[in-house]
Amino acid sequence: MELAVREAVAGDAHDVRDVHLTSIEGLAGQAYTDEQIRAWAHDRDPEQYPIDSEKTVFLVAEHDEEIVGFGWMKPNADDYFRADIDGEITAIYVHPTVARNGIGTRIYDELEARAVRAGITSLGLWASLNAVPFYQAQGYARVTDHVHEYHGKTLTLVEMKNRSVR
Predict the structure, then answer these.
(1) Has residue 21 been placed in a domain?
(2) What domain range is 22 assigned to?
(3) Residue 85 sits in a domain of what CATH number?
(4) Distance, CA of 142 to CA of 166 (rounded, Å)
(5) Which pLDDT tens digit goes with each residue over 109-145?
(6) Could you tell me which residues come within 8 angstroms of residue 77 by beta carbon, excluding any fewer than 6 positions away?
(7) Which residue ranges does the record assign to the N-acetyltransferase domain (predicted)?
(8) pTM higher than the cut 0.90
């Protein structure tokens, strides 16, 4: 599969939102109930994605000039982590029609490479239950579980930490 990973631009926001919602709806069913998925995949404002933020690295993956995945990283982790980490992987989502073809890994690898170039030595994240195996394959270990609320429904998310950035 020919794939390009590039920095997102403001014009990508609607496509990013579409991949985000479709990914949740298409891939989370093995870990969450239909009610939880509906709450999590509620309509999102495309302008809320931090594509132009100086505090994030926001990437998209394209196949045949269509956005099929995205991810973003914060070089400075927020304070909601229990683990001692420098940066955070905030999200990686892939369209379900092309899932399990290495797209998430390509996005992750590029985010990690940028973290290394920025001097980040440890990364953390909060993973959905269905994404835990993906992050374990990237070298992450479980730290603890968190309960997060989306529109009145609670979901368990797993805090994870990378042993060390490659």
Answers:
(1) yes
(2) 4-120
(3) 3.40.630.30
(4) 18
(5) 999 999 999 999 999 999 999 999 999 999 999 999 9
(6) 85, 86, 87, 88, 123, 124
(7) 3-164
(8) yes
